[in-house]
UniProtKB/TrEMBL annotation:
Family to which the UniProt record says this protein belongs: Belongs to the ABC-4 integral membrane protein family.
Domain ABC3 transporter permease C-terminal: 300-426
Subcellular location: Cell membrane
Species the sequence originates in: Thiospirochaeta perfilievii
GO CC annotation: plasma membrane
GO molecular function, one term: transmembrane transporter activity
Mode of membrane association: Multi-pass membrane protein
Full protein name: ABC transporter permease
Domain MacB-like periplasmic core stretches: 23-236
Bilayer-spanning residue ranges: 295-321, 342-370, 390-416
Length: 434
């Protein structure tokens, strides 16, 4: 305990030197912590944005191989699927059914692609209540042939309320079909997320893509939060697998949510099968991205601290020379070599600890301030943002690893001057002139 007290006293009496060394350590931790939390926040923001667009956390789709070997995208046993979902034990907050297709909308010489969601308006209460119309009203959903688009898409097509647009779509069997829509409503907002989806009557969408009136292609399941998605998805997948042929979840990366089509694969299958995709799987590649970012930032941390540690080692070497007579006096009064070494090592440890925690606190303050900056939502980068704002998610593992690494490197840097100080001859140290 006495060595700790002496170490803390030494740090406090050399405030300027301690502040500069601790500040260098704090700066390094600040940068790395912000990078780690920002990369994790980007993944969470994307997950939330996908959930917002799709209005769900888990998506169930199906496909059927006909005798002609043609594959049709549909949900054959809808009642059975709904029963299994109900009996699976997952906490379903809301469930919707949609048919969805990627369409090319054409108006005169202008064209633009958008995902058109075929909506059962009697069930989609939350979506209807969330609409903010720039032109038109919710009454437009009563017309089977109306389409509701975002004002960004309206500007791209140069259309106004009441204009007729041509929609070129792909049927469930892979054929091209064309239909006509009337712009029944234009929603407010020019953000990129809103412009990704348009809305139409599900019966008409089914006609265009070749499904029966009461059919739908996707079941959208919303849970209480994104934190329970993985566990719920695994539980539901197991329950469905007991009654149906399921596509392996590790192959779900080749499902396009908006075209609702299964791409070609090598696995042989026949009849009807289903797939379950969780929103977290759709950003799985970004989890790998976060891992790469964290690895790179850790490498940068090591490089940065190797530079800082050289400064720490040189500084403590100078400290040793400044304290030669003091060290000699303590040794003459009976302090052992280990005591001198411990004092130096404790100084380095507490310096690293203070710098590390200061850096994390400053990072928290910086992230708090940055999260208030509105970066807008009318650009591609908006997909990585939370309503136009940076999202920072604390990642305990990397933060603790960074603190441990900084502490270890600092102690190792101090070890050489600490050993040299401990090995000073007391008599020579007292008589030394520096």
């Amino acid at each position: 305990m006495k060595y700790i007290k002496i170490a803390l006293r030494n740090l406090s009496r050399e405030k300027k030197r301690s502040f500069l060394l601790g500040g260098a350590i704090a700066f390094g931790l600040l940068i790395i912590t912000v990078v780690n939390c920002a990369s994790a926040g980007a993944v969470k923001a994307i997950s939330e944005n996908i959930t917002k667009i799709a209005d769900g956390h888990i998506f169930i789709q199906g496909e059927q191989r006909l005798e002609s070997d043609k594959v049709v995208s549909n949900l054959a046993d809808k009642d059975g699927l709904l029963r299994v979902i109900d009996e699976s034990g997952i906490n379903v907050i809301k469930m919707n059914m949609r048919s969805e297709v990627r369409a090319e909308l054409i108006f005169g010489d202008d064209s633009s692609r958008t995902a058109v969601s075929g909506m059962n308006w009697d069930r989609e209460v939350d979506v209807k209540n969330g609409f903010r119309f720039k032109e038109g009203s919710i009454d437009s959903i009563n017309n089977k042939y109306n389409i509701i688009i975002n004002e960004k898409l309206a500007e791209s097509l140069n259309v106004e309320l009441g204009d007729s647009v041509i929609a070129k779509v792909m049927t469930v069997t892979g054929q091209t079909n064309v239909g006509d829509f009337v712009v029944g409503g234009i929603l407010e907002g020019t953000d990129i997320l809103s412009s990704m989806s348009s809305y139409a009557n599900m019966d008409y969408i089914n006609e265009l893509i070749g499904l029966e009136k009461d059919d739908y292609q996707t079941i959208y399941i919303r849970l209480e939060s994104i934190d329970v998605v993985d566990a719920a998805a695994e539980k539901l997948f197991t329950a469905l697998g007991q009654e149906y042929q399921m596509k392996a979840r590790n192959d779900n990366s080749d499902i396009d949510l908006f075209s609702l089509a299964f791409k070609n694969e090598d696995v042989e299958w026949d009849g009807q099968r289903y797939s379950l995709t969780a929103v977290t799987e759709m950003v799985g590649i970004l989890d790998q991205f976060v891992g790469v970012v964290n690895a790179i930032s850790f490498g940068v941390l090591l490089l940065l601290f190797l530079i800082i540690i050289v400064g720490v080692a040189n500084t403590f070497r100078m400290i040793m020379y400044d304290r030669v007579k003091e060290i000699g006096s303590m040794r003459a009064m009976g302090m052992q070599k280990g005591g001198i070494r411990s004092i130096f090592l404790f100084e380095g440890f507490f310096l690293a600890l203070a710098g590390a925690f200061s850096g994390i606190i400053l990072a928290g303050i910086l992230m708090f301030g940055l999260s208030f900056i509105d970066l807008g939502t009318d650009h591609a980068g908006a997909f990585f943002l939370n309503n136009g704002h940076l999202l920072f998610v604390p990642v305990l593992g990397p933060i603790l690893l960074n603190i441990l690494t900084v502490g270890l490197l600092t102690v190792l840097a101090v070890l050489f001057p600490a050993n040299k100080a401990a090995n000073l001859d007391p008599a020579k140290a007292i008589a030394a002139m520096y």
